[in-house]
Amino acid sequence: MTAPLEQVQIDHTVIDLIVVDDRDRQPIGRPYLTLAIDVFTRCVLGMVVTLEAPSAPIYCSQR
User: Fold this and answer.
1) The total number of structural domains that make up the chain
2) Would residue 37 count as lying in a domain?
3) Which of 10, 15, 29, 31 is the most buried (most CB within 10 A)?
4) Is residue 3 in a domain?
5) How far is residue 8's CA from residue 15's CA, in Å, rounded to a whole number?
6) What is the pTM of this model?
7) Residue 55 is part of which domain span?
8) Under a CB-based contact definition with an 8 Å cutoff, are residues 40 and 6 in contact?
9) Does 1 map to a domain?
10) Are 12 and 4 in contact (CB under 8 A)?
11) In this predicted structure, what is the pLDDT of residue 62?
């Protein structure tokens, strides 16, 4: 890689955390973290935290 934004890598992972409801303190689920990182500069270009599993339609709709 020789220039910024020539290659961007995107990765998803489940966060080691359980989200609970404000009112009744019942578990809602574990969130997913998605990061987009520039390979050349190693800068984080964007991130999303969501309770929905990673999929192309979800991330295309967030553009």
Assistant:
1) 1
2) yes
3) 31
4) no
5) 22
6) 0.77
7) 8-61
8) yes
9) no
10) no
11) 62
Residue in this structure with the two tokens 């192309």, named with its chain if needed: 56
Residue 14, SS3 per DSSP: strand
Q: Which residues pair with 22 in a beta bridge?
A: none
Residues 1-60 pLDDT 10s: 789 999 999 999 999 999 999 999 999 999 999 999 999 999 999 999 999 998 876 666
**What pLDDT was estimated at residue 25?**
96
Q: Is 46 domain-assigned? A: yes
What's the confidence (pLDDT) of residue 1?
72
Residues 10, 35 contacting (CB under 8 angstroms): yes
pLDDT of residue 58: 62
In Å, what is the CA distance from 13 to each residue of 8, 35, 45? 17, 9, 16
Do the beta carbons of residue 52 and residue 29 sit within 8 Å?
A: no
Of 7, 10, 21, 16, nearest to 54 by C-alpha is 10
Contact of 44 with 36, CB cutoff 8 Å: yes
